[in-house]
Amino acid sequence: MKKISMIGMLIFAFLIINQQVSNGCTNFLITKGASVDGSVMITYAADSHTLYGELYYQPAQDHPEGAMRKIYEWDTGTYLGEIPQPAHTYSVVGNMNEFQLAIAETTFGGRSELSSQAGAIMDYGSLIYVALQRAKTAREAIDVMTDLVEKYGYYSSGESFSISDPNEAWILELIGKGEGEKGAVWVAMRIPDGYISGHANQARITTFPLDDKENCVYAKDVISFAREKGWYDGPNKDFSFSDVYAPVDFGGARFCDARVWAGFNMVASGMEKYTEYAKGIVEHGGEHNFPTNRMPLWIKPDRKLDVQDVMGMMRDHFEGTELDMTQDLGAGPYKLPYRWRGLTWEVDSVQYCNERAISTQQTGFSFVTQSRSWLPDPIGGILWFGVDDAYSTCYAPMYCGITEIPECFAVGNGDMLTFSETAAFWTFSQVANMAYLRYDDMIKDVQVVQSELEDKFVSYVPVIDKAAEILYKEKGDAEARRFISEFSVNEANNMTKRWKELRNYLVVKYTDGNIKKEKDGQFERTETGMPASPIFAGYPEWWYRAIVNATGDHFKVIGSSH
């Protein structure tokens, strides 16, 4: 590692620390032309150490004239103010409403002087859930969200939003104007059909077309505001939203955009030319220069993707790349692709970092949404919902028109400080945390059940779609919703029951660091019915060598042994 000046080290540390505040989520966007069946998909992982995995639900409602909606900051629950309710609001399941509109987000932070705004009451989370209650399409949602921040101010730091409907996928990037100002500056771009995009806590929109309202809309002062602040003095056509309002630094590349690179790398060739960027390597040297070989906002995948491909994009630890988290000493003897936080650490006054992969241990919940234009709205939208670590979760299909939430996902069924035997989050967390102890063996058992369930769900959905569509046409909306609600509730609760069986199986199989022998799907017994002697798997040879290299003759056996 090259020596750098003390000032350079302080700047580096400051930037790393700032990035740790906003490295929580990952989104991918898949357009109709990039999916196997013509559905539009977006993904989200809510990666917070304090966020519980539960499925929010808000029924459709009529509101009397003068009704108000209270606004609470999504992350802290702080009361911010209230806004008028419209005459009618739509039903919302998680991050998808009954018209197949879906919204997800990642926080990029951006310029610190723009992070607070006195009197503002619309935070990023409230923008999402208010828009889902009021908009039917992605374009309408963009209008609702930007109108709200203009009228009521923007309470949060910089944010990237994924917004999709049955026909389009958009990225909206927005940051407040800071103290003494009101509202936000923003740009929204439609992802071209046939392409995919992604963002992960780093602003991704750079230059954008100024005269293509069909595919790009923006705040009227997005450029002039930057000029007034002295942050930009070039021609309008060269203005880059990210470079001005949220410049990429080491953390933005290594901890954030590297996740986008990893997801793209799973489905598209040619991403190796961005490897150095993903690693946060400075191209031109000097302590104030940061990576410049930025990835495009969207790419064309090598083939069209189905919903399980997209689930797979959310299950990545940089496998097969230079950042592969299973290959360095930190993975331990069983190739664990997780590192306990903090994100950075120090040895002999030199700072180092852990990788920040798409799949991470602190996830509260994650999802993949499907919006399908060929079906009636309540049936066409599916929120594939999973709790805890995305790599070891199971995504259950929650139709957007359901009117009931499964007990296993219900709000109030446990929380991060309250264990619940019927909550999916705690059941999945138990399995994941057990697997962390002997990962390369246990995860294979987990994946067998994961595939068993998700393959079943995927095979069931077309049949449920057809039956629900017939009910919708012949018996009406209410009967179709009852049917899809029953399906979604039963499958999620049965999935959780099956995961408890998996938990019990892992306890028996891997007790005390041993591995029970199996034959024909049963644990082996001797002829007299006693448990067969287990496999004493020990540790891999390379791990023993690492111990000897670190301890010398400390563990060496002296003399003969019996």
Topology of helices and strands:
Blueprint: H1 6-21, E1 25-30, E2 40-47, E3 57-58, E4 61-62, E5 68-72, E6 79-84, E7 88-89, E8 92-93, E9 96-97, E10 102-109, H2 124-134, H3 138-152, E11 158-164, E12 169-176, E13 184-190, E14 196-199, E15 216-218, H4 224-228, H5 241-245, H6 250-267, H7 275-278, E16 298-299, H8 307-313, E17 344-347, E18 350-353, E19 363-371, H9 377-380, E20 382-387, E21 396-399, H10 424-435, H11 439-475, H12 477-510, E22 518-519, E23 522-523, H13 541-551
Antiparallel strand pairs: 1-2, 1-14, 2-19, 3-8, 4-7, 5-6, 8-9, 10-11, 11-12, 12-13, 13-15, 14-16, 17-18, 19-20, 20-21, 22-23
Helix pairs in contact: 1-6, 2-3, 10-11, 10-12, 11-12
Give a structural overview.
Keywords: Dipeptidase, Hydrolase, Protease. The protein is globular and about 85 Å long. With 562 residues, the chain is of the alpha+beta class. A seven-stranded antiparallel β-sheet has the order 16-14-1-2-19-20-21. It folds into three domains: 317 residues, no CATH class; 100 residues, no CATH class; 34 residues, no CATH class. The N terminus is likely disordered. The two termini are 48 Å apart. The longest helix has 37 residues.
List keywords for this structure.
hydrolase; Peptidase_C69; five-stranded antiparallel β-sheet; alpha+beta; 562 residues; 19% strand; Dipeptidase; dipeptidase activity; 32% helix; seven-stranded antiparallel β-sheet; dipeptidase; 13 helices; globular
